[in-house]
Automatic annotation (TrEMBL):
One of its GO terms (cellular component) is efflux pump complex. PANTHER family: HLYD FAMILY OF SECRETION PROTEINS, MULTIDRUG RESISTANCE PROTEIN MDTA. SUPFAM superfamilies: PGBD-like. This is Peptidoglycan hydrolase-like protein with peptidoglycan-binding domain. Residues 10-19 have a biased composition (Acidic residues). The chain crosses the membrane at residues 32-53. GO terms for molecular function: efflux transmembrane transporter activity; hydrolase activity.
């Protein structure tokens, strides 16, 4: 056949017929439809879970390891009751002048004076703080005898001065040591002890207030300053109905201004009930009732808590259970059939919901018991 004839044949037959669409496109349409159906089915299944709840007690919730866990602990749970208290200092007292003259020096408010230190000055002469339980009342000189001699010699010995015997007799050896002491503190070296130049206290004192100013005149028995010890305490007017919550020696928690927490020990519990007073010292018009005085000595005050006086909250133990298994309250889950459980993490990392019986709730923890729950069991907690 010639080329022309083949061309004519092509012209007579017309354009070639369109080839059928590839089968691949039809399979794609089927796949999309199938995905839509699967998605609808998945959503329906999810809705069923939301309606009917989570897994039953003992159900395996999957092998994906949880991101936050804790262990069941054996501990003591304590329920506490908050009562009002007032932060301050223990050992309130006052210092009075022993001499006539002009006040020439005073310590700063809040200063702590240790035994052997200068308490204040009159006419340029210091009054020295000494450790003792009774005030000086006479001039001590060689030949004097008595308990006040022993008290002074003991105080002098504690400051590091020696060469004499601590006893009831003021000897020449005592006088020699006194001269050394007088030279060191800036007093005339007479060897005799003028009661106007010493002040006895049980220990260090803290200046809480001043009754005179530098440059003012003072006279014997006139108030010079008010003092406290340097021990931080909380005074609690405890209602009589709460008396059974505390005993001397109990440990308590104290919430300070600003949210800081300190621990303390009950050092005294009053035995005399009295009418509760208001902040101004008068009877409480709010019907506060009858109270006993409780004093709490703070073990350690957080750095920055420099309040001389402030209202605080004291948390007393009202109920306690010992030797129980406990977890954070957040570890509890609600089971579909009712009750509570925890999500236990097995050794293989799988998580199983286990029903538990709850007991005491306290301090963000809850007592639990149940099959397989023991000390050290790992459970899931929310992040």
């Amino acid at each position: 056949m010639s080329v022309a004839t083949r061309a004519a044949d092509v012209t007579d037959d017309g354009p070639p017929e369109e080839e059928p669409a590839p089968r691949r496109s039809r399979r794609l349409k089927v796949t999309v439809a199938t995905l839509v159906l699967l998605t609808v089915a998945a959503l329906a299944a999810m809705g069923a879970v939301l309606v009917w709840g989570g897994p039953e007690d003992g159900a395996d919730t999957g092998s994906t390891p949880p991101t936050a866990t804790t262990q069941v602990q054996r501990t003591t749970l304590q329920e506490r009751k908050s009562v009002d208290g007032k932060l301050g200092y223990a050992g309130r007292g006052s210092v009075v002048s022993g001499a006539e003259g002009v006040v020439t020096w005073l310590p700063k408010q809040g200063a702590v004076i240790d035994p052997g230190g200068r308490l204040y000055e009159v006419d340029g002469r210091p009054v020295i703080l000494l450790r003792g339980d009774k005030p000086a009342f006479r001039t001590l000189a060689v030949g004097d005898k008595g308990e006040d001699v022993r008290r002074f010699e003991q105080a002098l010995s504690e400051l590091g001065y020696g060469g004499f015997t601590v006893d009831d007799e003021y000897t020449a050896l005592t006088a020699y040591a006194v001269k050394q002491w007088q030279k060191d503190v800036g007093l005339p070296q007479s060897g005799e002890v003028d009661p106007a130049h010493v002040w006895f206290a049980a220990d260090s004192v803290r200046v809480s207030g001043k009754d005179v100013k530098v440059g003012e005149r003072t006279s014997p028995s006139a108030p010079v300053m008010s003092t406290t010890s340097d021990e931080r305490v909380v005074d609690v007017p405890l209602k009589v109905e709460d008396r059974d919550l505390v005993d001397k020696g109990d440990e308590v928690e104290v919430e300070l201004p600003g949210g800081e927490t300190a621990t303390g020990t009950v050092t005294s519990v009053g035995s005399v009930a009295k009418e509760e007073k208001s902040d101004d010292g008068g009877p409480d018009s709010g019907g506060g009732g009858t109270v006993v005085d409780v004093v709490v000595e703070l073990d350690d005050v957080p750095e920055g808590a420099f309040f001389d006086s402030a209202p605080v909250k004291v948390r007393l133990v009202s109920e306690s259970v010992e030797d129980v298994l406990a977890v954070p309250v957040g570890a509890l889950i609600a089971l579909p059939g009712g009750g509570y459980g925890v999500s236990v993490v097995g050794e293989d990392g799988r998580v199983t919901d286990v029903g538990v019986t709850t007991g005491k709730f306290a301090d963000g923890q809850v007592e639990i018991s149940g099959t397989g729950i023991e000390e050290g069991t790992e459970v899931v907690v929310p992040e």
